[in-house]
Amino acid sequence: xxxxxxxxxxxxxxxxxxxxxxxxxxxxxxxxxxxxxxxxxxxxxxxxxxxxxxxxxxxxxxxxxxxxxxxxxxxxxxxxxxxxxxxxxxxxxxxxxxxxxxxxxxx
Length: 107
Description:
- 57% of the residues lie in helices and 14% in strands.
- Strands 1-3-2 form a three-stranded antiparallel sheet.
- It is built from five helices and three strands; from the N terminus they run ααβααββα.
- The protein is of the alpha+beta class.
């Protein structure tokens, strides 16, 4: 068995390849948000899933957290430079999705 480097798309998908991660990044494009604000912006996300995605994105260097309150500790989340670099890719994906949904036949 040989060790091979992941293809560039595989590497990207390993970091942000699920629906909620991409939506969290999109929600942070306009600037920092608190946990509750992210929960409101992402209708349907369970708090435990949001926590998990924020932790994953932080470990991947896409999101950073900073405390805005000490006791109890409360965090605000913002995109890193790598996270902001994702913006152009997300816009392309969103544009593609918009064109496809406009072309789709009604069910």
